[in-house]
Amino acid sequence: MVDRLANSEANTRRISIVENCFGAAGQPLTIPGRVLIGEGVLTKLCRKKPKARQFFLFNDILVYGNIVIQKKKYNKQHIIPLENVTIDSIQDEGDLRNGWLIKTPTKSFAVYAATATEKSEWMNHINKCVSDLLSKSGKTPSNEHAAVWVPDSEATVCMRCQKAKFTPVNRRHHCRKCGFVVCGPCSEKRFLLPSQSSKPVRICDFCYDLLSSGEMTACQSSRSDSYSQSPKSSLNDVSDDDDDEDSSD
């Protein structure tokens, strides 16, 4: 079906509409063989709080942006190559339901659909697109992904020292390796994570020790475990928290 739609006028028109919605600030999306599979509004768990974002699934990329005027105007376009994507379901808890993780080497985050059916459809379509891409290219699925950041609201004290309380003066920071919310003294070190930035990025002391000793797998698994155990609220080429693309969300 994708091959049949690839060169159809209807598909070209749909992609052109998406391009126009992002305006001149967005990147061109029309290329030979690209097909718009589906679109919809998902709730993205941002650093500050959950926010609605418009998502577009193509057969080779996932695109999302901020909603300015629904179905008419979006900004802050983000394009994620599907070859680098892996997804994992998230258990329902509190008001955050029907969610899954979108994981890539450069950025990972959680999204939530309005219904269980919508979640299932999104996950099935994404997995199918990724599988088809990898099959055609002969590549293997990505086994490296950036940490999913713990939202600011889930940490009133540093998640490493468990002592420093966050205030307007004592700011929250995020470790780029594990995603924990940490205080300044617990995250003074920098480490080069090539998949995320060409410059050394902020990491916590715990991850720095593991990375320096070569125990990267242990560091990554600690974040995966913490995500499933951390409390849920109700509801990345960066060097400091204020520079993160979602820090103003």
UniProtKB/TrEMBL annotation:
One of its GO terms (cellular component) is early endosome membrane. GO terms for biological process: endosome organization; endosome to lysosome transport; protein transport. Residues 35-131 form the PH domain. Keywords: Endoplasmic reticulum, Endosome, Membrane, Metal-binding, Protein transport, Transport, Zinc, Zinc-finger. It holds the Pfam family PH. PROSITE patterns: PH_DOMAIN (PS50003), ZF_FYVE (PS50178). Residues 152-212 form the FYVE-type domain. It is a peripheral membrane protein. Residues 238-249 have a biased composition (Acidic residues). The keyword Kinase does not apply. Residues 221-237 have a biased composition (Low complexity). One of its GO terms (molecular function) is phosphatidylinositol binding. It is found in: Early endosome membrane; Endoplasmic reticulum. Residues 220-249 are annotated as: Disordered. Its main location: membrane. May play a role in early endosome fusion upstream of RAB5, hence regulating receptor trafficking and fluid-phase transport. Enhances cellular sensitivity to TNF-induced apoptosis. This is Pleckstrin homology domain-containing family F member 2. It comes from Struthidea cinerea.
